[in-house]
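Run log, item B.
One chain of 192 residues. Sequence copied directly from the ordering sheet:
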Amino acid sequence: MIEIKSAESNSELQGILDLQWENHLHSISDSEKTEQGFVTVRHSMEQLQLMNSIAPHIIAKEDELVVGYILAMTKASKDLVPVLVPMFQQFDRLNYQDKKVSSCDYMVIGQICVGKSHRGQGLFDRMYEAYRETFSSTYDFAITEIAKSNFRSLSAHKRVGFEVIHEFEDETQEWAIVLWNWKNYGGQVREG
């Protein structure tokens, strides 16, 4: 039986790191990237511990094995992973529904991954439901960026309720910023 819960121990954090490496874009073939998706950032144990102390990561466990995770980040954790600072800066340049994103209380999806042997079983949706249940009473929305070449991830995020609010290109690839609104306010997205 698979349990969806907050990460609590170093062994669970190590399980995240193991799963992250197995699905990292440098660990899988080009065809697997296209068909199954990939993760782009590798974290250290220290980074995961510090992030988890600010907001708990959501994990899926089968027995003692971590088979899926969603990394939780907030504005308070943005400097913990230097490679992600530009993502936060990109968010700060956007408006969403007539409000500066930077003025909102939001959660950042630091990364999501479902293990290869557990895909197609609804874990992606179940983990996101737990994520929303954990954070939606405190935060307005969840936001992240996804490589546009990661078709599987982009499609799955749209399925659970994320909407593409902005697209941009950097020196490595094209990105989509997606947002899952947990509160209602009116207006439109614009860069500002």
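Observations after the first pass:
- The radius of gyration is 16 Å.
- The chain has six helices and ten strands.
Flagged for discussion on Thursday.
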